[in-house]
Specification:
This protein is mainly α. Helix content is 69%, strand content 2%.
């Protein structure tokens, strides 16, 4: 809808610009009607009008080869019915004048139409924007809740994994379980949190989002360190990192809970 509205605004803007070019270019007929209604009204020619032509209809040129002007405002600027008849016989349809009158503006209807069209297009964009903002706000609330649920799952996974590997006497098997579980955690829950960054930024603002990411990045680095330690066979460090990650996940949860 925004694209259509923008297109309509552009079209009506061009039409409005076209209409404004004729605001001071009334037709000879409208000037004739004005003088007929009020013979004392002052109408001033603002620009040269018409070209002098020969009996054969060819433009008459001066010594420099320029077309000779039929009516020069520097010599005669006051418009009367005699001048209008003279210009009309020369094929002139419009002339530029200094005075503006809505009644003489032949394309005033087009200007009004363009104003209506631009206003309508603006209202369409405004309505679409309001709908998008409302939908985004609703998504932000829903997504915000899902982030909190996701962090609950993260803490649950880490806590369960820490207990399992702590009781496992086979360190090799425990390390394999750590890397496998943390891989799954990264592809699922941690990925969901990262996908929600734009929503979290909208929900908490830039400062709040930065604070959240500061806490979350500590947790994320700890999880990566636990994975690396397990992959390298350093079991004690992997278990220690898991225990710390559980605590750091709880801190992220507490931060989110304080801002519900």
């Amino acid at each position: 809808m925004k694209l259509l509205a923008s297109l309509l605004i552009a079209i009506f803007l061009c039409l409005g610009a076209l209409a404004t070019t004729t605001a001071y270019l009334p037709t000879l007929d409208s000037l004739d009607s004005t003088l007929e209604a009020d013979p004392d009204i002052v109408l001033t020619l603002a620009a040269p009008a018409g070209i002098q032509k020969s009996d054969k209809g060819q433009p008459i040129l001066d010594a420099k080869g320029h077309k000779q002007i039929l009516v020069d405002p520097k010599k005669t600027s006051s418009i009367d019915r005699q001048m209008i008849d003279h210009l009309r016989k020369a094929g002139v349809f419009r002339v530029q004048i200094l005075e503006f009158a809505l009644g003489r503006w032949s394309l005033s209807w087009l200007f009004l139409l363009s104003v209506i069209g631009i206003t309508g297009g603006g209202l369409m964009i405004k309505k679409q924007t309001q709908q998008e903002v409302a939908a985004f706000a609703e998504a932000a609330v829903n997504e915000g809740l899902s982030v909190e649920q996701t962090m609950d799952e993260v803490q649950g996974w880490l806590g369960e994994l820490a207990r399992e590997v702590l009781d496992d006497p086979d360190e090799v098997q425990a390390n394999t379980r750590i890397t496998r579980k943390l891989d799954e955690l990264g592809k699922n829950q941690l990925a969901k949190v990262l996908e929600s960054r734009a929503v979290l930024q909208n929900r908490f603002g830039l400062a709040g989002f930065a604070e959240f990411m500061s806490l979350y990045s500590i947790l994320e680095r700890r999880i990566h360190r636990a994975w690396s330690a397990a992959a390298d066979g350093v079991h004690e460090e992997a278990v220690e990192c898991l225990a710390q990650a559980v605590q750091e996940a709880r801190e992220v949860q507490d931060w989110l809970g304080a801002r519900v």
